[in-house]
Recover the amino acids of this structure.
């Protein structure tokens, strides 16, 4: 291969790498910028294990290079047979004991933190903030049992206190992960996993109050689009949000919105709900609860929140999230009907 062509390949490989790595380090998305107690503990463990690994690599590399140089075959010594050694108790003890010590240094904080993060006793307190998370192909439901409200796609939490999670899935295995705050934990169909997170108020300010959440388990063709957003509010704001959402009713101000409501009640209400106090059992809640939909961060978890995106989604959800359960479950809508439905959906405000 010509040299310049090789150089070009190496250069493009590094440029691509630089481009990919440029995505790292955002305060709202990166495990390397922890924004809460859990993330900080996980980050410290990462640092500790990386430090131990780097130390081992450095020591081994130094010994390796030393041996290569010191015992290389020299000119004129081609037939020289060095002294044959069999076993060395000192060395054998040394290379058994050192790894054991390193493993102990790694194990003690890891096990201690694992138990600490799994301690969900406080969940039983009456004023604990508890969220039941249900993962579905490809959307997230967030139920607040103590507040008696249900929402979806946007997880809303108060800052600086423990938020407890009961997590499960209704179809296949998914995984709940908020990279900069903590996780990831599998959501299973056959049982609940429990853990807690803390959302740091100062750190969340630098992330503009929004963290990114992701599904971290390959679950189907739209796994990569199974995102959710986390809105972090102060305790007072959180209480206001709960009260507002509790009473939020669809706002049907125009004739067009009314026509949209009719379409909704005919074709969508079988799976979706528009009020946060949804008394139906979870088997009946087959699609995201849309209470407060107009004030959410994204449409379908991934599109910018505007009317254009809603229309795009309503016209062809399959194109945006392949394999989602909404495709082909409602009749083809005319452009006018799509407009009316969009207007109705934009009237589903938080207050
Ligand atoms: Cu759900 Cu990946």
């Amino acid at each position: 291969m010509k040299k310049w062509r090789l150089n070009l390949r190496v250069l493009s490989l590094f440029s691509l790498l630089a481009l990919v790595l440029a995505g790292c380090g955002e305060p709202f998305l990166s495990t390397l910028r922890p924004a809460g107690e859990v993330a900080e503990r996980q980050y410290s463990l990462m640092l500790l294990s990386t430090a131990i690994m780097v130390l081992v690599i450095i020591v081994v590399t130094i010994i390796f290079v030393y041996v290569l140089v010191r015992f290389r075959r020299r000119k004129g010594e081609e037939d020289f047979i060095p002294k044959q050694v069999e076993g060395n108790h000192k060395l054998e003890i040394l290379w058994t004991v050192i790894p054991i010590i390193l493993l102990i240094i790694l194990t003690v904080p890891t096990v201690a933190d694992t138990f600490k993060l799994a301690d969900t006793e406080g969940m039983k307190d009456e004023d604990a903030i508890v969220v039941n998370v249900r993962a579905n192909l490809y959307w997230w439901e967030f139920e607040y049992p103590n507040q008696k409200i249900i929402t979806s796609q946007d997880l809303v939490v108060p800052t600086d206190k423990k938020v407890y999670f009961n997590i499960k899935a209704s179809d296949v295995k998914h995984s709940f992960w908020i990279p900069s705050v903590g996780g990831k934990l599998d959501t299973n169909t056959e049982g609940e996993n429990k853990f807690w997170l803390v959302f740091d108020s100062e750190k969340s300010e630098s992330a503009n109050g929004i963290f990114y959440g992701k599904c971290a388990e390959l679950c189907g063709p739209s796994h990569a689009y199974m995102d959710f957003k986390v809105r972090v509010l102060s305790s007072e704001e959180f209480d206001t949000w709960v009260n507002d959402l509790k009473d939020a009713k669809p706002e049907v101000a125009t004739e067009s919105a009314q026509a949209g409501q009719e379409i909704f009640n005919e074709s969508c209400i079988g799976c979706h709900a528009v009020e946060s106090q949804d008394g139906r059992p979870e088997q009946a809640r087959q699609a995201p609860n849309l209470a407060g939909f107009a004030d959410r961060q994204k449409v379908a978890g991934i599109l910018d929140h505007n009317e254009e995106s809603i229309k795009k989604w309503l016209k062809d959800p399959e194109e945006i999230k392949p394999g989602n359960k909404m495709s082909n479950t409602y009749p083809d809508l005319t452009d006018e009907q799509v407009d009316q439905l969009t207007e109705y959906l934009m009237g589903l405000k938080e207050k």
Summary: The mean pLDDT is 91. The pocket of dinuclear copper ion is lined by residues 135, 138, 174, 215, 217-219, 223, 226 (CB under 6 Å).
